Amino acid sequence: MAIIELEITKRSSFASGQSFGDVGAYELLEGTAHYAVDPLHASNQGITDLELAPRNSAGGVEFSADFAMLQPVNTDRGNRRILFDVVNRGRKTALSLNSVPTPTDPTTPLEAGNGYLMRRGYTVVWGGWQADVPPTPGLIGLHAPEAIGPQGPLTGKIMCQFQCNEPTQVFLLADRQHLPNPAADPDEAEAILTVRDLPNSPATPVDRSSWSFVRVEDADLEPQHSHIYMPSGFDPGKIYQLVYTTTGSRIVGLGFAAMRDVVSFVKHAPTSAGNPSADAIDYAYAMGRSQSGRFLRQYIHVGINEDEEGRPALDGIIPHVAGGMRGEFNLRFGQPSKDVCYIIPEMFPFTDTTQRDPVTGAQGSLLDALERQGNVPKIMFTNTSAEYWRGDAALIHTDLETLNDAPESPSVRRYHFAGCQHGSGDFPPIEIRPADGIKGQLPFNSVDYAPLLRAALDNLDRWVTDGVEPPASRHPSLNNGTAVESHTLLERFAQLPDVRIPTETTRAVRLDYGPESHLGRTTKLPADMGEEFPALVADLDESFNERGGIRLPDLTVPVATYTGWNLRDESIGNPNLFIGITGGLAGWTLPLPATRAERESFGDPRASIEERYTSREDYLDQVTRAAMDLVAESYLLEEDVAEVVHLAGRKYDYWAENGNRC
């Protein structure tokens, strides 16, 4: 057992002692998990640079991670399942399944929301996996050792990407505000800074004399050279990339072992080992969103799900809104926070069955390593319109050679939440995103897709425990004509009043980081950009909503059009760029005209609300029937129908009866 101690330092009542059905009350446990993994064990061989980690007297590699767990006070009343919430940049996200927004302040007390997870009896586990999470109260991070070579800490090239929404002269040498990677030499002449408007457009070099690693005012205060400074300022919205030399490489791949082993500990360890859930767990599922969904895709690809005793840790996995991407989760000088399919090495293969890249000749499947072990968890890949419009989500179900739908593994389902943005939407639609102050050309997408995730988790549980097949995959399809190239829809969107379209859409790109990238080392920075991959999205219906995928009543009985893309507002710079190309993908909401007269006045090609529905009651009857159809197909839980109908009524009142226009 790789966990040598689970140190619980705090216990507290959850939700003021609220009781959740037959399960009863929950408690929150917090502390630290202490690990020692065997660097020579076969189950750990996929971890990059593990052989360079310092070892203890027994030959093990020691590290630790923050830990938290919500479990029933009476563990006998639980459902004997773990939901491992793969934290996103250290933040807990699982309670969004309870329709609780992820707070911007990580110290905010956890809320129960509608109690979905608790009523089901889940034990929710959080464990640190990301080695560059700063030591901030409330964040869940991994405290990993650095790789040590013959000459000491490793020195090598690294690339950072930056974007700001208001003028600034300085960036931390990290993705967002994570632990920085200091410049080894502040006077490095070979360091390269470039700038571009769009991810796929050519980069323009920035003269080396116009920027530095040391601000003049910090010359005596910043000996580690942890910032880049440009006196003339960085332009809002522009995409900057910096390649430079750093010293010190955290062994970020230990995050895989950290997740695997804490799950295995809670499943299998006895009370005598300090396991607070001893003899109370049979199955374990993991869900990760966005960055942490990409982490799960990498975990699947590396195939590190068996612990040192040969037992599978996770029985089911939901990588959510990860698209076709993975990330720097097992890379020398890796920055696990970094995203965007225009800079991520080792994206191919995308699919869960064997595919061949006709351009490079590469061949493989995301599941190759797990299939060699003979134990593949049940997996549901769930995505929204945003990841499709980013340019990479359709790659998970596309045969690149024939441009047909790719075959599907019997252990996999692929679901597209049609017309949704990266994060579940708020209603009324917000115009400025509170987390980062970003404003789009139109108010943000307001579709709440949390009910679809709840149904997915219920279906996954039945699939794992009882062998009940979940509903069929549903996504934009080349075979049935619901998948089209994204650029072909721009002229259609241009027909809508108040909608500004980009000059071009974005696509994932083949990147050459050198011959050692498959070993977790990028020897060519910046990468050579090769041919673009196809960028497929769902085609549109007559209301300009998406046809392919799982369609909530928001789309099938519409009072608005919803997208997974939104251009930046001019006030934050680079207005021809999609919001979220460097993080935080967003869509927009555009209500249908309320009346025929309004439609004709604005020249709107969409039928009005007045022309579609005879009354509010007629509208809600149609919404109820559409929701019940989803229940019959198992894409929606019957318990969520009332909330879906209630939210639909609020939207009707807001746009049809009150005449609000975004």
Report on the architecture of this protein.
With 662 residues, this protein is an alpha+beta fold. The protein is 17% helix and 22% strand. It is built from twelve helices and 28 strands. The chain has helices spanning 116-120, 254-268, 291-302, 368-373, 385-390, 450-466, 490-493, 553-556, 596-602, 609-612, 616-632, 641-657; strands spanning 3-13, 26-37, 61-72, 81-86, 123-127, 142-143, 148-149, 152-153, 155-162, 168-172, 192-196, 204-205, 227-234, 239-247, 283-289, 316-320, 355-356, 363-364, 378-384, 398-399, 404-405, 412-417, 483-485, 509-512, 528-532, 536-538, 560-562, 589-591. The strands form nine sheets. Strands 1, 2, 3, 4, 5, 6, 15, 16, 19 and 22 form a ten-stranded mixed β-sheet that branches. It has a four-stranded antiparallel β-sheet with strand order 9-14-11-12, with no helix packed on it. A two-stranded antiparallel sheet has the order 7-8. Helix 11 packs antiparallel against helix 12 (641-657).
